[in-house]
Design goal:
single chain; 143 residues; alpha+beta; Heat Shock Protein 90; 4 helices; globular
Length: 143
């Protein structure tokens, strides 16, 4: 990758399925950077979850709203920001109880933030007043 890499922006509609466009864009950049395939897979999952959260919880699946995914490569890491246009969200992340989910005692959803936190090296959830929510993830090349 060139030394001074500009940020790459991917704008997707808040329509489920389009998270795959962002996911594959991030994976392509990671492969160009020399990431091991297992780290590319981690990144793909984290980006997909962040985009899905932005579409569903931030933008409330309003088709006229967008999710912006910004990819910024450096020598040692890839930073991915996923931004929505929604109102402030509670960023609670609890450990899903798989036994209770399997037995039908707990909703099977709720893995997004848990997965993101466990698949990337750094994660930050922010609300920017009058702009929306941002999930910032960093994944290091050599981990």
């Amino acid at each position: 990758m060139p030394k001074k890499q500009k940020a790459i922006e991917v704008h997707i509609p808040s329509v489920l399925g389009y998270e795959k466009v962002a996911m594959e864009s991030a994976a392509a950049v990671a492969r160009l950077m020399g990431f091991h395939q297992s780290r590319v897979d981690d990144l793909r999952t984290a980006v997909s979850e962040a985009c899905t959260n932005a579409m569903e919880h931030g933008n409330r699946l309003k088709k006229d709203t967008k999710v912006l995914v910004t990819l910024k490569a450096s020598k040692k890491s890839l930073e991915v920001k996923v931004s929505d246009q929604g109102k402030s969200l509670k960023c609670e992340s609890k450990v899903p109880k798989i036994d209770e989910q399997v037995n039908g005692c707990e909703d099977v959803r709720g893995w997004g933030m848990f997965l993101i936190k466990n698949l990337v090296d750094e994660v930050e959830f922010k609300n920017i007043p009058k702009q929306g929510n941002v999930t910032r993830m960093v994944i290091h090349v050599n981990r």
